[in-house]
Amino acid sequence: MSLTHYLVLAAILFTIGAVGVLVRRNAIVVFMCIELMLNSVNLTLVTFARASGTLDGQIMAFFVMVVAAAEVVVGLAIIMSIYRTRRSASVDDANLLKY
Amino acid sequence: MDTVPADGLLAASWLLIALPLAGAAVLLLGGRRTDRWGHLLGTGTVVAAFVLGLLCTFALDGRQVDVDLFTFAATGSLDVQAGLLYDPLSAVFVLLITGVGALIHVYSIGYMAHDPRRRRFFAYLNLFIAAMLLLVLADNFVALYVGWEGVGLASYLLIAFWHERPSAATAAKKAFIMNRVGDVGLALAIFVMFAQLGTVTFEGVFGSVGVLAGGTVTAIGLLLLLGACGKSGQFPLQAWLPDAMEGPTPVSALIHAATMVTAGVYLIARSAPIYDQTPTARAVVLAVGAVTLMIGAIAGCAQDDIKKVLAYSTVSQIGYMFLAVGLGPAGYVAALAHLLTHGFFKAGLFLGAGSVMHAMNDSVDMRRYGGLASKMKVTFVTFGLGYLALIGFPFLSGFYSKDAIIEAAFDRGDGWGYVLGAVAILAAGLTAFYMTRLMLLTFGGRPRWEDGVHPHESPSVMTVPMIVLAVGSVLAGFLLVVAFPLEEWLAPVFGEPEGAEHVVAPLVVSVLVTLVMVLGAGTAWLFVGRREVPLTAPVRVSPVVRAARRALYADTVNESLFMRPGQWLTRALVFVDNRGVDGAVNGLAATLGGSSSRLGRAQTGFVRSYALSMLGGAVVVAGALLAVTAG
């Protein structure tokens, strides 16, 4: 298992996440896709930490997880409140913030 | 010139200016409280100034006295000391201004008796007297300029005194603007003096003017002449003076006949050392004088407005004075003698005209006068004496002073001397014509009064000044030329009189002028006196008369040469301002506003499109980084 395999996997995961964010309408799914992108980045960080033999990347990955956890809390709360008022979890229905 | 510091009474000569100025300040700031006694205060300050001026003149004793007052402006190399120069020349003017001024103040008490704004009128008159005294007493060009602008302001305020009449407001604006053209010339002359000589005092400028290049002196001379032309209503800036007759008649008498309009003559006479250096500028002064005296005389012949006739006569007589000062040392004294006698008889004539207007319900149309000689005896006699003095009736004042100018013109000795002398004699004939016409139309013939006009003699507060001025008109010439020669009095300023050889014997000139005068008066009788006067001006007249009625098209020329192009220029500038400057600013704002609202459409509200643009941006940034690091 060389370095390249991990990086390619991370790239694939990131791409799936990015495409998911762009094409899916369900807010929960979009949210999961964002998590996927974050974790692909984590994977990259850990891979390079391992390759360079330092702990910096792993510590960075922990930070990302902590921030992601906080983000999930806030994000899900927002999605819940939007769902309660609009009876919909589609991201396209929350389109009032415009010109 | 050698000046001595002021002593005794002369050290207080600043009071001459301060008294009328204080009067004006009290009357203007005091408001309606001063309405009851304002005219008395205004008259009192001028009478006091006259008495003080008389005492100062007696104390003068042929010296030239400098009165240091205070530092007016000290900035770097320009150090202007406010000071007064009391010498025989200024003394003559002080007496004329305060003397005639006091008489006219007294007259105005009666003339303006029924005007609700009489106090304000006296305030402006006082302001004028103060500014005019500053003009003639200043010992440097900057202080002179302050007085020069002061009289311009007073003139403007007084012409527009009845500003509810559009014609008066327009005339005041015209006078102010045409004066401004001249004032620019005077200001530029002062700038040139300071730039070239570093000083603006009379003593400094006249002392060192000899070191300047000829062209510079000529430029100073011509610029001063431009200023003088503006103030004195000389060609090509003569058109404002007849219109200035819209002001109350005492104003016409004091400002636009006796004193302010002669300031140009004073300026040129005072600047004699400059003109001594520049024959070119002096020749232009001569030409201006000759042209103006003809224009004034011709235009005066065809006016039906009594004050306009007198105004064109003033233009013409000041032309005589310019002609005389343009002749150089030979003419200065003649010019000033004529200035003084003119101050008397023209002020008297205007006061008489005011008295006539008073009797005729303020009508100025001479065609509706007639037969007033028996109704207004005092006015008739005083006006008649002024008339005889003006046309140069033998042994009255105009006879002496005008003859002196004509003699001085012939004494040039060359061909131009004869031309100028002939022009001056011809104009004397025209003067006799238009003044006789005025007399016949006003006092002679049958009454042609409008309905409801009941002529009556004016109150004595008006007739007494007229009588005094009439006596002055009769005697001034004899006193100034024969009894107490002005020549000797002014010798400290203009040098000792030279017993010059006369080219044409004075007796011949006198006889010739008298003959022409009789001829002119006789012609006027032929045209006006012996036939019925039509109530409206005849329409079918020769082109000459038509041109004279319109003052030789001076207004037309001014309008087509300056006013219309000026209007076009302002209109073009307004267009450029609206479309160009405003257009650029408004256009920029509109462009920014439009593009921002168009860009705002990109804000769709769809989170996914934002995410796509973020992704696109990140890709671009990553691509750029790669390109930079790889390249």
TrEMBL record, chain A:
Subcellular compartments: Cell membrane; Membrane
InterPro entries with a match to the protein in the record: NADH_UbQ_OxRdtase_chain4L/K, NUOK/Mnh_C1-like
A matching Pfam family: Oxidored_q2
Spans through the membrane: 6-23, 28-49, 61-83
EC number: 7.1.1.-
GO biological process, one term: ATP synthesis coupled electron transport
Top enzyme class: translocase
Repeat is among the record's keywords: no
Reaction catalysis annotation: a quinone + NADH + 5 H(+)(in) = a quinol + NAD(+) + 4 H(+)(out)
Domain of life: Bacteria
GO terms of molecular function: NADH dehydrogenase (quinone) (non-electrogenic) activity; quinone binding
Gene3D superfamilies: 1.10.287.3510
Chief location: membrane
Membrane topology, from the record: Multi-pass membrane protein
UniProt keyword list: Cell membrane, Membrane, NAD, Quinone, Translocase, Transmembrane, Transmembrane helix, Transport
Extent of the signal sequence: none
GO CC annotation, single: NADH dehydrogenase complex
Record's function text: NDH-1 shuttles electrons from NADH, via FMN and iron-sulfur (Fe-S) centers, to quinones in the respiratory chain. The immediate electron acceptor for the enzyme in this species is believed to be a menaquinone. Couples the redox reaction to proton translocation (for every two electrons transferred, four hydrogen ions are translocated across the cytoplasmic membrane), and thus conserves the redox energy in a proton gradient.
Complexes and interactors: NDH-1 is composed of 14 different subunits. Subunits NuoA, H, J, K, L, M, N constitute the membrane sector of the complex.
Family: Belongs to the complex I subunit 4L family.
Name the record gives this protein: NADH-quinone oxidoreductase subunit K
From TrEMBL, chain B:
InterPro entries referenced in this protein's UniProt entry, alphabetically: NADHpl_OxRdtase_5_subgr (IPR018393), ND/Mrp_TM (IPR001750), NU5C-like (IPR003945), Proton_antipo_N (IPR001516)
Domain of life: Bacteria
Keywords: Membrane, Transmembrane, Transmembrane helix
GO biological process per UniProt: ATP synthesis coupled electron transport; electron transport coupled proton transport
GO MF term (any one): NADH dehydrogenase activity
Gene3D superfamilies assigned: 1.20.5.2700
Entry annotated with the keyword Ribosomal protein: no
Localisation: Endomembrane system; Membrane
Keyword set includes Transmembrane: yes
A Pfam family it matches: Proton_antipo_N
Membrane topology (UniProt): Multi-pass membrane protein
Occurrences of domain NADH:quinone oxidoreductase/Mrp antiporter transmembrane (ranges): 138-424
GO CC, one annotated term: endomembrane system
NADH-Ubiquinone oxidoreductase (complex I) chain 5 N-terminal domain segment(s): 74-122
TM spans (from-to): 12-30, 37-60, 89-109, 121-138, 184-202, 208-230, 251-269, 281-302, 378-396, 416-440, 461-484, 504-528, 610-630
NCBIfam families: NDH_I_L, PRK06590.1
The protein's name in its UniProt record: NADH dehydrogenase subunit L
Species in which this protein is naturally found: Geodermatophilus sabuli
